[in-house]
Amino acid sequence: MGRSSPEMTPSHSDIEKGDVKHGVCSSQEEMTPENSDNPPSQEEESTIIFKVPHRLREVNENAYEPNVISIGPYHYRKPHLARMEDFKKWWFKKFVEKPHLGLHQFREAIRPLEGKIRNCYERPLHPDLDKDEKIDKEKFVDMMVYDGCFVVQLILEDHQYDWKLGQYISAEIFQDLLPASFLCAFGVV
User: Biased-composition ranges for Polar residues (predicted)?
Assistant: First the structure.
């Protein structure tokens, strides 16, 4: 089916901008035979974890904000989530002590996938993570290692209550993990 088909579903960016009229993208009105079959860019095609559209966030901004923990780059370094960054590192240490692996081995496993993982997320990311500099790539790799190990450890522990967190915080973590925009790229886990 060509991209100019009347059945074409509005794209995420069309919805975000409000360019949808009666279920059809308003940008279709401007399509010509020359541009109707342009394939999506490689970045657009590989993006699988999207931000919540602005119009949905307007209804209730807090509904899409994590309360306790940030997983992935969208809420990276938000001050109210900082406490859990140390906890993720503590769980990482707990995770790696069993197979006697270290941070270096996990970094080496994720580093070659960094670009592919980064492209799973809609842009822009946190400014510390969205530059091409080597240090920013390392921050992104570390974030993915800690977040991925945290999610795996959470699944392995299969717990509803952790004495270090407290029952309230444990429940909040599970609530924060539900929206897809907070997730780690599956390839990391």
Answer: 1-12, 25-41
Closest CA to 176 of 184, 187, 186: 184
Rounded Cα distance, 113 and 116, in Å:
5
> Of 105 and 44, which is predicted with more confidence?
105
Query: 185: closest CA among 49, 60, 67, 26?
Result: 49
∠ CA(35), CA(36), CA(39), 5° rounding?
Answer: 85
CA 53/CA 64 separation, integer angstroms? 10
Distance CA 12, CA 179 (A): 16
Give the CB-side neighbour count of residue 109, counting CA atoms within 13 A. Answer: 14
Tell me, what DSSP letter sits at residue 33? T
Give the Cα-Cα-Cα angle 45, 113, 131 (nearest 5 degrees). Answer: 75
* Residue 121 pLDDT: 83
**What pLDDT, in 10s, does the model give residues 80-102?**
888 888 888 888 888 787 677 78
